[in-house]
Amino acid sequence: MTLHGKHLIAGWTNGEATEGFRAWDPVQSAGLDPVFFEATPADIDAAAEAAEAAFDAYAATEPAHRADFLERISSEIEGLGETLVKRASRETGLPEGRIRGERGRTVYQLRLFAAVVREGSWVDARIDRAAPDRTPLPKPDLRRMYVPLGPVAVFGASNFPLAYSVAGGDTASALAAGCPVICKAHPAHPGTSELVAHAILRAAEAEKMPDGVFSLVHGQGYEVGLALVRHPLVQAVGFTGSLQGGRALFDAAAARPVPIPVYAEMGSVNPVFILPSALENGAEALAEKLAGSILLGVGQFCTNPGLVFGVGGEAMETFLQALGEHIRRAEPASMLHRGIRDRFCAGADRLAAAQGVERVAASEREADAARTEGGGALFRTDVQAFLANDMLSEEVFGPSSLVVVARDTAELERVAHSLKGQLTAAIHGNGEDIARYDGLVRVLRRKAGRFIFNGFPTGVEVCPSMHHGGPYPATTDVRTGAVGDTAMQRFVRPAAWQDFPSSALPPELRDRNERGILRLVDGKYSTGDVG
Amino acid sequence: MTLHGKHLIAGWTNGEATEGFRAWDPVQSAGLDPVFFEATPADIDAAAEAAEAAFDAYAATEPAHRADFLERISSEIEGLGETLVKRASRETGLPEGRIRGERGRTVYQLRLFAAVVREGSWVDARIDRAAPDRTPLPKPDLRRMYVPLGPVAVFGASNFPLAYSVAGGDTASALAAGCPVICKAHPAHPGTSELVAHAILRAAEAEKMPDGVFSLVHGQGYEVGLALVRHPLVQAVGFTGSLQGGRALFDAAAARPVPIPVYAEMGSVNPVFILPSALENGAEALAEKLAGSILLGVGQFCTNPGLVFGVGGEAMETFLQALGEHIRRAEPASMLHRGIRDRFCAGADRLAAAQGVERVAASEREADAARTEGGGALFRTDVQAFLANDMLSEEVFGPSSLVVVARDTAELERVAHSLKGQLTAAIHGNGEDIARYDGLVRVLRRKAGRFIFNGFPTGVEVCPSMHHGGPYPATTDVRTGAVGDTAMQRFVRPAAWQDFPSSALPPELRDRNERGILRLVDGKYSTGDVG
């Protein structure tokens, strides 16, 4: 399969400009063919107009048909086989095994949303029948369900080239909800993006979905993304990336004449609080597991534990020594791209130079810049220094962590108050600690979307009970999450029909419950017919 | 009961400043005692800090206890009896009968939310049990539910001095969700606000709710409201009012270092499309009913039908004549306050002076400015003039409507495309029309939150199927509605717990389902225990 580097807008390829960019192999430090074209305002317009033109027809597709489409995307992605694995691995420096695992998650997500759509109850259908004889006023017939918002712009994430990129969670949930998608490919893996976009378009063709249900545009700078978010036909935005990038999109969306929701999943330092009981009962085992979480995937996860808090003393020193030993032994490995490596090195250097911060350990083997490598790094400080310097609580994206040593548990609670919003917070201790340190527990619960006991933040299970989100700056919308079936709710709005004849209603709201979905009828849940 | 005009912050009264304002009786054109104090930044701080201090304890109240509190607020409001009715009527010019009706709706809403909280399933509890033996990685135990956001700022609406004011839908849904409320009283009915705030505080005291669960502050200008929205401890905002006011609050919230959601329900012109079949079958009966909707409550509803569209011809002329007759016979009546009357008169004058617009009818008896009266007004124009002048599609808050006469139904569809977001859209015709004018139907469905067949937009039923919301500029958040049980979802966020012992979880997520709520356990709905 030869990549062409062009945009894929409503099924047709576009992009004759000579301005463009190449993907980069971070391991070989080499550019990759072909040249990818920077989208012009006319390209953005064409993609948005195609998405709008597709909207009515796509929103009206039968659930089973839409589910077939999602499942077909899954099998088309699987059909890309090793071509996809090799290209994604080359563009990201991620091992092929990791790419295969991520592909598994990507197709699982698509099939999960397909199952939710096929079952159908997610639309939260509600029916309140008329009471024409009610006094003083008759009661109208009212019916309500979720309907799709309209065209959605999705921004691929660099650290999940499949699961949070072109056919990742945002695209899957938007398509499942009935919204056409315009995806802005991440410039770090444009070839992977093109391959997956072709898979989606083949599925759209096979399932006879309207043109414009999916488009892919390329772009290196902020301009293409901002133009997409500002486009009047775009109704919502899904983004995974940096705080700076996410906030810029959020601000642009809020400043529109008609503001739209932006679901940006951004940075998080995922604090891990280790209570004295946990340090005393197996500091070394804890250090080993924590090191695994810090180093996993060269630390390139939004759930990477960047801050660790505990009380000083002998057990803490044992723990730090063991943790440092794991970090020292960690092999440096290629990071996703040079920008990420540069920011990681700069962040680690800033930490090393900060007042009151000491570098405890670093990978023994030096990281090879020519292979875009990042090595493990471990730092320590105390609460006073930590509270005096905001920079110390900022995310350093990569295999680095800062251990903040408190004098006592009261200081732990105090420092917890200072934390910003997080995707996760973890606490290690025994069963009695939860009651004993109730103040700390309550503070952490306020700060994070997911609260973990005796575990580590990396590893985001895809299941109904997962919540992957959190207070700002972890995300721009604390009310939603990007993982699991509820992610679809980001791309819908409620709509009510009053006194319409049953035949003119969406099938989900007709008297006859032909889809057998769960509906709230006159205040009671039912899967039966009305009448 | 003597009003004191002071703020009510965490149960204590405050406000010794000499700067203040009085309520105004629009019927008598007279100021009313006492002087109400303009909140200072220190007052806002105190209210926000009290709300934050109350949050943990209030969020942790048992559902039955919180429901008792909401029900107690209802009975305390009823206990205010005629004192409340008379003060509200004097401050708003609304007839006492209307105030009594609105009081009925207010206490009904509070009891509805109490019932939802008492039943408890609204938290959407989800449990996925651990699978420690799963390969390649063990599956953790994950549990998820909605938790309250934190302190909520509520802005009372001038046109619903009870149902969308101090103890109205926003306050009731926020308190039901577990969020403390800081209410900014509308300066047009500060005495009504103080009375209702006392009722809430008496209920809080009787139910031993934490201080700070509710505060009331007064203010005439935008400053107090903006300070509240910008306060770092405030986590969400509910507002009903003008587009200008709502957008200012939205912009302030979006510009915060930590942005927060703003649920502003703003203007709407609630277009009514009358298809030829409806005009031909009873133009006069239709005119009578539409006139009733236009004139209801001196047109002071956000669901007032401000735009009517139909095809020209003999039936249209009959309709216009009959509608004009009803408007001419309409008695002018006192509007809520001078600002609203001034804006209504200016809006009607602008319409009358606009190119291509003709005044068809106005109340025969002249409106009495000394009694703050507004009279009915009816205008007509054609599609060309309508599309040429954006001003014609703006809301004129009051008993006025503009009939846009199209040449044919194709023009109706074209003009429908030009409309902004609306709370409601109505269509009048017969059963076959819905299929015949599918294009028009689809456009209107995109534009509005509630879509009405052969009915009128005024009259918002409080029931699970109601959706009172819509695309911008009807609201700042198309994803939510302000009426019915789902309004609570505006003030919560999902939170997940991973691997916590059952005893350390919120009761809703423990193995034993002691509250008997509906939960999604391992992908299946159940009201039983886990394990």
Describe the biggest sheet of chain A? 7 strands, mixed
**Model regions low in confidence, pLDDT < 50 over at least 5 residues of chain A:** none
CATH architecture of the largest domain in chain A: 3-Layer(aba) Sandwich
* Proportion in helices of chain A: 25-40%
How big a fraction of the residues of chain A is strand? 15-25%
Total count of strands of chain A: 23
Q: Indicate how many domains the architecture of chain A comprises.
A: 2
Class per helix and strand makeup of chain A: alpha/beta
Mean pLDDT of chain A: 96
Mind telling me the CATH class of the largest domain in chain A? Alpha Beta
Rg of chain A over CA atoms, rounded to whole Å, is: 25 Å
Descriptors for this entry?
16 helices, 2 domains, 531 residues, seven-stranded mixed β-sheet, alpha/beta, Aldehyde Dehydrogenase, Chain A, domain 2, 38% helix, 23 strands, homodimer, five-stranded mixed β-sheet, Aldehyde Dehydrogenase, Chain A, domain 1
Quick structural gist:
2 copies of one chain form a homodimer. With 531 residues, chain A is an alpha/beta fold.
Secondary-structure topology with pairs:
Two copies of one chain form a homodimer.
Chain A: E1 7-9, E2 12-14, E3 20-25, E4 30-37, H1 41-59, H2 63-79, H3 81-92, H4 96-119, E5 126-128, E6 142-148, E7 152-155, H5 169-177, E8 181-184, H6 190-206, E9 214-217, H7 222-230, E10 236-240, H8 243-254, E11 262-265, E12 272-274, H9 276-280, H10 283-295, E13 307-311, H11 314-329, E14 333-334, H12 338-353, E15 358-362, E16 373-374, E17 377-382, H13 383-388, E18 400-406, H14 409-417, E19 422-428, H15 431-436, H16 438-447, E20 448-453, E21 492-498, E22 519-521, E23 524-526
Parallel strand pairs in A: 5-22, 7-8, 7-10, 8-9, 10-11, 12-13, 12-19, 13-18, 17-18, 19-20
Antiparallel strand pairs in A: 1-2, 3-4, 5-6, 6-21, 14-16, 15-17, 22-23
